[in-house]
Amino acid sequence: MKLSRNTLAVALLAALVAPAAHAEVALDVIGNSEVSFEGLVQADFYKFDTDTIDYGADVPGTDVDGKEYLNELRRAELVLKGKGPGNIEWVLGYDAKDDKFLDANIKYKFGNNANHFIQVGQYKQPGATMEELSSTKNNDFVSKSSITNSLGTARRVGVQYNYGDNNWGLTASYFGRELTRNREHGAGYGLRGYYAPINEAGNILHFGASYSNKDTDADGIRLRARPMADMVATRFIDTGSSATSANTLNNRSDRVSVIGAEGLWVKGPFKLQGEYMTIDVKRLNGLDDFSGDGFYVSGLWNISGETWGYKAGTPTTPLPSDPSKGLWQLGLRYDTIDLNDGSPIAGTNRVNGVLGGKMDSWTLGVNWYWRSNFKFMLNYVMVDQEKYSTTLRAKAEDNPNVLEARMQFYW
Fold first, then answer.
1. pLDDT tens-digit readout, 143-181
2. All residues at 6 or more sequence positions from 112 whose CB lies less than 8 Å from its CB, including other chains
3. Integer distance in angstroms from the first to the last C-alpha of the chain?
4. Is CB count within 10 Å lower at the N or C end of the chain?
5. In CATH, what number is assigned to the domain containing residue 322?
6. CA nearest 359: which of 339, 331, 333, 380?
7. Is residue 171 a contact partner of residue 187, using CB atoms and an 8 Å limit?
8. Which residues are 280's β-sheet partners?
């Protein structure tokens, strides 16, 4: 949806009045709780070297405007946080751009240990990727990976228990629907474990694994992926939406399980990161189960020499060593997702199983963190997509290149 003028004005006003040298604004102490205010405003621009699809259209198939670009506010996140009383922490976040709640929960830390706690409310699930669990303002690339956007379970309302220390952790969560109405739902559970055998300044080695299992509430599931551009309306890679065909997942699935594996290596100003996910969908009406998977591998170099930190099994991005010059990063990522689990039936326009398509992409990116509150990103993405077409009775392709830019202000 488009952000209203009033909501946008409120978000921008909050951004402008925030002190430029702090990551958050301390408000007051209320009920022995130290309350602070944080925000994140992002604006994106995409320029497409289109192939066969008009990715600049606002609505697929109904607004083919011929534009080869999109520009829009991506996020307008407003977050209240509280510390206390005692070992209690709480957070209430809202994205005014997407009209949805973000983290909205209460946490109790045992013995004031940040890695041993119980949490109730809406939070990012352990069945999400390490990339999703990391801070959004420090994304390495404009678009998150295809497995993060398409396969993992992100925020849901539930109860979570975490036990660990600085270099290891185990998390178990039981969850239901998303807090915002008419969003994701279906009860389930998630698990995540991680271990960093090396965890010191400028030298980190991390391994992790996750598992999630959830009900589709008899509503089915639709798996699809954008061409590495978050605000694009059209998805070429798609398992389908028709409820009348056996060759789609929608309205013909029961439970969904996802297994994830992750790895991270930091050496000085260099970071190598990769994740893999495989999804299994139990199908109804005697249909064969569906399986898909995907992974990404990325490398980042802090040209200005800074290194990364490590917190709760995720990398943390430092402030610039020289705020006036900023922190410069150069990154490269390979990403792939495969939603094919079937084969065409020769001589017909039907398939056995589901053929949602496959997408491979390369992303080259440059990031500039200036001072404490500004970030500028520039990405060039090369995308290769292929999907079997029952109309053509052959594979169809769409291979756009995308120039992406993001301006970000956060406090």
1. 999 999 999 898 999 999 999 999 999 999 999 999 998
2. 87
3. 25
4. N
5. 2.40.160.10
6. 339
7. no
8. 257, 291
